[in-house]
Design a protein that fits this description.
By secondary structure, this protein is an alpha/beta fold. It is about 40% helix and about 20% strand. The protein is built from 6 helices and 8 strands, in the order H-E-H-E-H-E-E-H-E-H-H-E-E-E. The longest helix is centred in the middle third of the chain and has 28 residues, at about 90-115.
């Protein structure tokens, strides 16, 4: 019995918190709620609300993962989908695919945040202009030097290391670096580019 309780507790932790939106927040939305809770165990419906109350509700409840609506919505930052109040078979397939998409998106977000947890705000450079890779390495290395993480020579050695063999590891990612003897304190500097850059081979 305890094992079953633990499984249920673990399952509920992974459930997505959802709200159902319709014109008035009553009537057909309750039927939709019943069908969703019966057929989609990974969804926990927190409330059924009227469209007019959506903005206020999401402001007060920041833990809503997704919105399931019976009417078209505009300017909703939370992942949302429109289905029939009767949840027809086609709607079930649509909602199932939507849930898969939400899971993938959240996993990617979590990976991104996990990486950013290993650095600091002044070592993250987003949407940089594409320049030669040596120039980009030099710019990032100089920031590391200015913040006291590396010796001044680190930039030169990082470029020299890159000239010997490009540090791209695939999937649009490169990990330029220099000799660890020039490092005062471990750190990760991250840069993303507006346009792809040929990193060499």
């Amino acid at each position: 019995f305890q094992a079953a309780v633990e499984r249920l507790r673990h399952s509920s932790e992974k459930r997505k918190k959802a709200i159902i939106v319709c014109h008035m927040g009553i009537g057909m939305s309750q039927l939709l709620r019943t069908k969703i809770e019966r057929k989609f165990h990974q969804i926990a419906v927190k409330a059924c609300i009227a469209k007019a109350d959506l903005a206020d509700y999401t402001t007060k409840h920041g833990d809503v993962d997704l919105v399931i609506s019976t009417i078209a919505l505009e300017h909703v930052p939370i992942p949302h989908i429109v289905v029939s109040p009767l949840l027809e078979p086609s709607d079930e397939k649509k909602l199932s695919a939507f849930m898969d998409q939400v899971d993938v998106s959240q996993r990617q977000t979590q990976k991104t945040f996990k990486m950013l947890n290993n650095t600091t705000p002044f070592l993250v450079f987003l949407q940089q202009e594409s320049v030669h890779r040596y120039k980009l390495i030099e710019q990032m290395a100089m920031v590391l030097y200015e913040k006291g993480y590396v010796e001044k020579e680190y930039a030169i050695h990082a470029v020299m290391r890159e000239k010997m063999s490009a540090t791209n590891i695939g999937a649009g990612i490169a990990i330029p670096h220099a000799n660890s003897k020039l490092i005062k304190q471990s750190a990760i500097a991250i840069a993303t580019l507006k346009e792809p850059l040929d990193w060499g081979a």
